[in-house]
């Protein structure tokens, strides 16, 4: 049976070649779409790891503040107290510029037992960062005031980095090297992953270190968590207060708006991509359908003969659908050869599971597409009456 | 002859309506996407409000320090000092528009928050760039020298801040807790022009940063305007000469900054660095992308065309039997295919006008107004012809190779 089908396909190789290449290219397009969707979905289904609602960020220009570390410390201590004293504000913390949704990244490398881990997000955070974001500590503890004066700098790492570095062992109390492995840092806690780049991106490796006096002159962001009563009136008061304190440019932003903006950057191109891809696929589906339909009309004689010898209608349509499926399989084998290179070569550092799921989905999709396109022509072929078909010749 | 081909083409199109629909659907949709993409590229690349003098302008936006031994790299916007102290000495530069990148600030009106993006500019900024003043006028050298707190605002800001007030010149707008007197209102600028889009324009002398600081990096960028188009290469050369005289900062051994044409400046930002403007990278990536996108509809069209030719084998057989050469047949088929493509192109044009209307209406990118102009139409025509030729060549070749005896016998 299959041998016979292959012979039929081989006899029309020139025509089938185009059919094959069309399915092949469609497979690659679909593979790209599903890879993106799987990647985004996998990340989306992971917990966010923090609470963004009612968190505001205050960004200010620190150019006019004193450069003296001690007076700067005093200034920031006073500012913290004044902000904390406002009834609408629940929590306040200073932070480096790369807080969640901020479009700013700061990364570093860390070393552990001779192995280097690159692109570790380096969050420099104030003491109340955990309270503002409501980050949960999985192991160990959050920063304590005494962490400022220690021999080895105390740091907190996130779950992903912990798994990569220590696997199942505990990370607490371990010493790890900084980017050039010259200084050692001591891990005092492990926190849950926080998806700082929006719902659709992985948290990546991250480490948190205490914002100390030396870092204050680089600081230009404050995060606050407000209570329910905080409205635009309060915001404008807060704004005036900050502008007067800094005597410079100030901007207040709401985390929920920043999150929407961040997610939009991912969603918009994806929507455009899906629209274009689905038009391409409709196009291909119509094309396949048309070509198959036409071919069957051309083969009326052959089909009529089969019917006359005694093949049933369903056997004929089975044959035609199977022919299309075999063609699809041939394309898919070639396509999968290309697609499998992505997980093998670890392209873009994305987990292999994304590519494999995307591949399976695309194979399934192409089979369904070809099946759907050949079903009607096949059905039509089964309706061919032998007498009529043979009479035409 | 052409008239005959046209008649035949129309007759063939009418014969199998379903195939005609598939072909036209594929062509028109492909061309729609190409046209919208072209309209977008056109918006970004060709001269647009308020930057009409791109042919005689060069853009300076980045400063890069390198330490080749340690592999350090520092990249930032340029300082005012650099423009004032070095670039202003260039003889080929007629005028120079200096401005900061837009920075966001908040204003609160009637318990509503408005985000105002403000830019500090020099006086020549208003001479180089042709902003449309709806009322009032720009600030000049005198206001700059006196560091007057005056502001030119965009129409959008006017509506957001003052409501339906008819004239706002002379009124005060408060941003960053400073009251600025409005002296002019300009039309909105599309956000795609990141160098020029802003809600409020202020004299650089009122900036709180110390713009006189003798450093190379800062928050500014500039447009250098040459006297005429021919002077632009000279200006670029003079700029590069000047860069050799710029002292290299401590701890580094190279300093780069370049005056680029608008497009090169953009590609440098996306894919380039101090020494390479990234033009080739961006152009090749774009071309590969367009080719890949075209591949699928083309294969599909070729597939359908071949099917349709086989249907016409008797016609071809007869024509060949009467002495028509392969060349004539190829020519005929190409013309037919081009006619089909043009039909698809016309439908595509209607679709793209609709798509552009929808995109503009939704205001996807703030203040961006796409439009169909002659440039876009021209490129779309080129795309149409390319698409028609590519998808016609292989089927036409197959058709001309058809064996007469077989073709006539088939029916």
From TrEMBL, chain A:
Sorted UniProt keywords: Cell membrane, Membrane, Transmembrane, Transmembrane helix
Major location (coarse): membrane
TM segment ranges: 20-41, 267-294, 315-340, 352-376
Membrane topology field: Multi-pass membrane protein
Gene Ontology terms: cellular component: plasma membrane
Ranges for domain MacB-like periplasmic core: 32-232
Cell location: Cell membrane
GO molecular function, one term: transmembrane transporter activity
Domain ABC3 transporter permease C-terminal per the UniProt entry, residue ranges: 274-386
Family: Belongs to the ABC-4 integral membrane protein family.
Protein name: FtsX-like permease family protein
From TrEMBL, chain B:
Location of this chain's protein in the cell: Cell membrane
Domain (ABC3 transporter permease C-terminal): residue spans on this chain: 288-404
GO cellular component, one term: plasma membrane
Membrane topology, from the record: Multi-pass membrane protein
GO molecular function: transmembrane transporter activity
Keyword Transport: no
Chief localization: membrane
Residue ranges of every copy of the MacB-like periplasmic core domain listed in the record: 20-241
Pfam families: FtsX, MacB_PCD
Transmembrane segments: 21-41, 278-302, 338-359, 374-397
Keywords, ordered alphabetically: Cell membrane, Membrane, Transmembrane, Transmembrane helix
PANTHER family the UniProt entry points to: ABC-TYPE MACROLIDE FAMILY EXPORT SYSTEM PERMEASE COMPONENT 2, MEMBRANE COMPONENT OF TRANSPORTER-RELATED
Listed name of the protein: FtsX-like permease family protein
């Amino acid at each position: 049976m299959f041998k016979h089908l292959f012979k039929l396909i081989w006899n029309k190789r020139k025509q089938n070649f185009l059919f094959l290449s069309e399915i092949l290219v469609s497979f690659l397009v679909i593979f790209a779409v599903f890879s993106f969707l799987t990647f985004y979905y996998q990340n989306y289904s992971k917990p966010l790891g923090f609470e963004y609602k009612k968190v505001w960020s205050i960004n200010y220009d620190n150019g006019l503040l004193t450069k003296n570390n001690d007076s700067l410390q005093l200034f920031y201590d006073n500012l913290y107290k004044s902000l904390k004293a406002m009834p609408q504000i629940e929590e306040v913390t200073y932070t480096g510029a790369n807080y969640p949704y901020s479009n700013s990244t700061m990364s570093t490398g860390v070393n552990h037992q001779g192995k280097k881990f690159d692109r570790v997000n380096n969050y420099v955070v104030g003491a109340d960062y955990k309270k503002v974001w409501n980050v949960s500590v999985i192991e160990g503890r959050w920063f304590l005031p005494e962490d400022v004066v220690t021999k080895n700098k105390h740091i907190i790492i996130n779950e992903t980095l912990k798994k990569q570095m220590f696997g199942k062992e505990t990370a607490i109390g371990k010493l790890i090297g900084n980017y050039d492995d010259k200084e050692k840092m001591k891990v005092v806690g492990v926190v849950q992953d926080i998806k700082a780049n929006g719902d659709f991106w992985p948290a990546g490796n991250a480490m948190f270190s205490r914002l100390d006096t030396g870092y204050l002159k680089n600081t230009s962001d404050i995060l606050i968590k407000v209570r329910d009563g905080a409205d635009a009136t309060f915001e404008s008061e807060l704004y005036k207060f900050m502008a007067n304190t800094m005597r410079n440019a100030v901007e207040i932003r709401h985390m929920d708006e920043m999150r929407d903006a961040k997610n939009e950057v991912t969603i918009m191109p994806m929507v455009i991509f899906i629209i274009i891809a689905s038009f391409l696929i409709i196009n291909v589906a119509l094309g396949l359908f048309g070509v198959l339909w036409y071919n069957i009309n051309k083969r009326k004689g052959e089909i009529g003969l089969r019917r006359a010898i005694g093949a049933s209608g369903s056997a004929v349509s089975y044959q035609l659908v199977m022919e299309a499926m075999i063609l699809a399989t041939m394309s898919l084998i070639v396509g999968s050869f290309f697609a499998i290179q992505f997980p093998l070569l670890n392209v873009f550092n994305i987990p292999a599971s994304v590519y494999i799921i995307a591949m399976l989905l695309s194979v399934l999709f192409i089979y369904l597409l070809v099946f759907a396109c050949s079903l009607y022509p096949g059905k039509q072929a089964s309706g061919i009456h032998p007498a009529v078909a043979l009479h035409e010749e | 002859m052409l008239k005959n081909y046209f008649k035949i083409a129309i007759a063939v199109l009418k014969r199998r309506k379903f195939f005609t629909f598939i072909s036209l659907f594929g062509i028109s949709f492909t061309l729609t996407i190409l046209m919208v993409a072209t309209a977008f590229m056109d918006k970004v690349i060709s001269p647009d409000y308020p930057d009409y003098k791109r042919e005689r302008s060069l853009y300076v936006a980045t400063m890069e320090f390198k330490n080749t031994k340690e592999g350090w790299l520092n990249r930032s916007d340029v300082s005012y000092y650099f423009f004032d102290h070095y670039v202003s000495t260039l003889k080929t530069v007629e005028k120079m528009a200096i401005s900061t990148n837009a920075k966001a600030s908040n204003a609160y009106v009637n318990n509503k928050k408005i985000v105002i993006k403000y830019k500090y500019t020099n006086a020549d900024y208003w001479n180089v760039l042709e902003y449309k003043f709806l009322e009032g006028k720009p600030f000049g050298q005198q206001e700059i020298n006196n560091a007057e707190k005056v502001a030119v605002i965009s129409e959008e800001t006017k509506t957001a801040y003052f409501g339906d007030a008819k004239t706002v010149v002379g009124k005060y707008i408060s941003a960053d807790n400073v009251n600025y007197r409005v002296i002019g209102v300009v039309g909105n600028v599309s956000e795609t022009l990141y160098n020029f889009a802003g809600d409020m324009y202020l004299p650089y002398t009122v900036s709180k940063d110390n713009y006189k600081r003798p450093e190379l990096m800062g928050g500014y960028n500039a447009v250098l305007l040459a006297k005429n188009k021919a002077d632009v290469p000279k200006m670029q050369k003079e700029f590069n000469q000047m860069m050799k005289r710029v002292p290299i900062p401590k701890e580094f051994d190279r300093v780069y900054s370049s005056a680029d044409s608008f497009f090169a400046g953009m590609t440098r930002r996306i894919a380039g660095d101090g020494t390479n403007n990234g033009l080739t990278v961006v152009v090749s990536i774009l071309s590969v992308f367009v080719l890949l996108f075209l591949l699928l509809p083309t294969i599909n069209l070729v597939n359908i065309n071949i099917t349709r030719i086989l249907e016409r084998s008797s016609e071809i057989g007869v024509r060949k039997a009467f002495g028509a050469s392969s060349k004539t047949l190829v020519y005929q088929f190409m013309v037919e295919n081009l006619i089909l493509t043009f039909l698809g192109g016309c439908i595509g044009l209607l679709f793209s006008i609709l798509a552009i209307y929808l995109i503009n209406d939704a205001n996807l990118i703030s203040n961006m107004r796409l439009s169909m102009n002659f440039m876009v139409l021209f490129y779309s025509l080129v795309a149409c012809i390319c698409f028609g030729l590519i998808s016609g060549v292989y089927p036409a070749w197959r058709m001309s190779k058809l064996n007469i005896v077989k073709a006539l016998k088939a029916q």
